[in-house]
Specification:
With about 350 residues, the chain is of the alpha/beta class. Helices cover about 30% and strands about 25% of the residues.
């Protein structure tokens, strides 16, 4: 396949780096359009559509229009997430893609965290609490490990939601976003977590009737999280923050699965920022997302035309994802847990005035 990377920020760089370091037989050539240089992914698709087999959209440059162009020219399409997470409700099931494959949310989260859920989900009724802790450190100035603007929008601007019995439900919040302080054995250090809206909450719950609750708690690197909270509280604009790659610390992304018939289990991947930088020149967060993209690229030739998230892939495709992740040294770990009382009793207030338990 000839691939167009529409946008060339940290994630575009990470994907391109992995494709060069670990060549995939399904990838022949890679074209790049960098919107920072004034280039347009849509214009390049129109001008070069006969040379393009798949568009990897890692921009926020009108994703719907790029998908429509790919549908029009029968070009495969892949992205790592939506501008607004709740838009996933209107995209599933996906529209007719004619003769192309459209992969929505094939990064880390959404993306591989859904694969982790499908591989390790509990039997019977259960809850899925997604927990991400990024302990990245570098100097005394705030920095980001991925798009700071999207982070701020997700953590502070977009109304947070959870998924209860397959339905998106808004949380109760005002200018002061709810903060949860927690730790989990030696897996996650004690830190402040924020509820964030993620499209995989709906993808997971809508496709798994036994999932009673799905929510996402994210603890970003301390300096940028403190800056985001201060800007939200004071009302001042969120400033420009650089994305850094040469970092200390780790990004751990996982799911806490709790139910009535099985022991609680945390399923996770940990990316060491410094190891990823030494090997690929990118931070661990970018590497995790790029692994999800590579899994999507590897899957595309094996899929019938249509729109897919990782949660809606045919069951027979999951071993292909596993094979790709092994090649990328992406390790999924799992540990049974005895939850501490504060975590076992964690609940969240909903906008309708009710409260829901986060752990079954």
């Amino acid at each position: 396949m000839n691939i167009l990377i529409a946008g060339y920020g940290g994630i575009g760089l990470a994907v391109h780096t992995l494709l060069k370091a670990l060549p995939f037989d399904c990838v022949n050539d890679v074209l790049i359009t960098d919107i920072k240089d004034g280039a347009s992914g849509q214009a390049m698709i129109r001008d070069r559509h006969e040379r393009i087999d798949l568009v990897l959209n890692v921009t926020t440059d009108d994703a719907a229009s790029i998908r429509d162009l790919c549908r029009h020219y029968d070009i495969h399409y892949l992205d790592t997430g939506l501008d607004m997470a709740r838009d996933i409700v209107d995209l599933l099931p996906g529209p007719d893609t004619r003769r192309s494959v459209h992969l929505l949310g094939f990064g880390m989260n959404p993306g591989l965290i859904e694969f982790m859920y499908r591989r390790e989900r509990l039997s019977g009724r259960h809850n899925a609490l997604m927990l991400e802790s990024d302990t990245a450190e570098m100097g005394a100035a705030p920095f980001a490990t991925w798009s700071p603007q999207i982070y701020y929008s997700e953590a502070m601007v977009e109304p947070p939601f959870v998924c209860v019995d397959g339905e998106l439900v808004d949380l109760a919040f005002d200018r002061h976003r709810p903060i949860v302080r927690l730790e989990m054995e030696d897996l996650l250090p004690e830190a402040d977590y924020l509820w964030v809206p993620h499209e995989e909450l709906f993808s997971i719950a809508a496709n798994n009737p036994d999932c009673e609750f799905a929510g996402y708690l994210y603890s970003a690197p301390n300096l940028i999280q403190e800056l985001a909270i201060e800007c939200r509280t004071s009302g001042r604009d969120f400033p420009e923050v650089p994305v850094r790659h040469d970092l200390r610390g780790c990004d751990t992304v996982g799911l806490l699965l709790t139910g009535e018939t099985e022991r609680s289990r945390y399923v996770y991947n940990t990316a060491d920022h410094q190891q990823c930088f030494r090997r690929f020149g990118i931070n661990g967060t970018a590497w995790q997302v790029a692994c999800g993209v590579c899994a999507g690229l590897y899957l595309t030739p094996h899929l019938a035309p249509g729109s897919y998230t990782m949660s809606t892939l045919p069951e027979e495709c999951l071993p292909l994802v596993e094979h790709c992740l092994e090649r990328l040294d992406f390790i999924i770990s799992s540990r049974n847990l005895q939850l501490a009382p504060d975590l076992a009793g964690l609940s969240v207030d909903l906008a309708d005035g009710s409260t829901v338990a986060c752990c079954a």
